[in-house]
Amino acid sequence: MPELPEVETIARGLAKRVIGDVIESVWLGSKPEPLKSPAKEIAKVLEGSRIADVQRVGKHIVFDLDRVVRTPPSAKKKSSAKGDHPEKAQWVVHLGMTGRMLVNDPTDELAKHTHLVATLKSGRELRFVDPRRLGRLSVAYGFEPGGKEPLDVSLQDFIPLFRGRKTPIKSALLNQKLLRGVGNIYADESLFRTGVRPTRKAASLKKDDLARLHPAIQEVLREAIKLGGSTVSDYVDSDGEEGFFQLQHRVYGREGELCLVCRTPIKRVVIAGRSSHYCPKCQK
DNA sequence: ACTATGTCCTGCGAGC
DNA sequence: TGCTCGCAGGACATAG
Question: What is the spatial distance, in angstroms and rounded to an integer, between the CA atom of A185 and the C1' atom of C9?
């Protein structure tokens, strides 16, 4: 579901409401799929931790946690024991297609497919809900997923990402090891604004194509963030609010409808198993 | 090292 | 009304 603008919107909303709060207890559901780290470790690291920051990294939500690791009294006299010491840890959340991270009042009804509830000192709850269970929860100590941040990458660093790649440019844009955060909607929208067909081999794009693609991606992502992301079927932010960028989509989800520039019907093809939309006249 | 394909899940709407 | 089918914002494992 969520791509960079949606995750950014969620992370900003969460930051406003939970920074400084302390996770008092964690409830984990019985379904193991959403857990990338062992359940015991997630519960252990989260419980008692203070949320120092919430940030988006690619499509991940990263909670920076400050926690005090307590050494059991029995171990204190041993020479190897360090005693109580602060530790930096991160709670990393990937929402997959249908994941939601919500701030709730404890009296709010528990949604179906709730896999985690973190009770906060303030009395509120952080809830992770994910019907398809393609999302993932983990803890890390220095999270670094690789790939370049699309909003930060310079043109100089952007151009070589596609050198020698025979895969369609659409697939390359979805490859999180190259750029982290671009997904199906924003790949299609960026390529439309660039005038490049999604089926073109990545390596076939000339320097001037890439010099247009680079700002097009950033423009689309920035505009989408401004509008709170795209709600196609069920995306909502941490307050349960929908986004509005879907009203600005020029090709995504518009198969058979007329191109807003040239009135040619928008085409849909499947690339790497994903629906891809383009204008056959505007995109070469 | 790169690339194409299948798989993980549930829910929804279209079509019959 | 009820059924089946295809499709969905993502990422990985696997095989070539």
Answer: 7
Q: Is A3 a catalytic residue?
A: yes
Would you say residue A200 has pLDDT above 80? yes
Nearest one of A276, A259, A25 to A169, comparing CA atoms? A276
Residue A221 CB lies within 7 Å of the nucleic strand B: no
Q: Which contiguous run of DSSP H or E holds residue A98? A: none
The set of strand C positions with any atom below 7 Å of a protein CB reads 7-12
Q: Which domains does chain A have, with CATH numbers?
A: 4-140 (3.20.190.10), 155-278 (1.10.8.50)
Q: Are strands A85-94 and A136-140 parallel, antiparallel or unpaired?
A: antiparallel
Catalytic residue among A6, A8, A56, A59: A59
Determine the nucleotide nearest to A186 by Cα–C1' distance: C9
Question: Which residues 116-135 of chain A have a CB under 7 Å from nucleic chain B?
Answer: 131-134
Contact A124, A23 (CB under 8 A): no
Query: pLDDT, tens digit, for every residue of A73-132?
Result: 776 555 455 678 778 899 999 999 999 999 999 999 999 999 999 999 999 999 999 999
Q: Are A193 and A219 in contact (CB under 8 A)?
A: yes
Predicted model pTM: 0.95
A202, two tokens: 């990545």
The angle, 0 to 180 degrees and rounded to 10, between the axes of the packed helices A207-226 and A4-18 is 40
Question: Residue A2 catalytic?
Answer: yes
Report the 10 Å Cβ neighbour count for A95. Answer: 24
Whether CB of A253 is under 7 Å from strand B: the answer is no
**Dihedral sign, CA of A201, A202, A206, A209?**
positive
Quote the pLDDT of residue A85.
76
Tokens coding A284: 């070469």
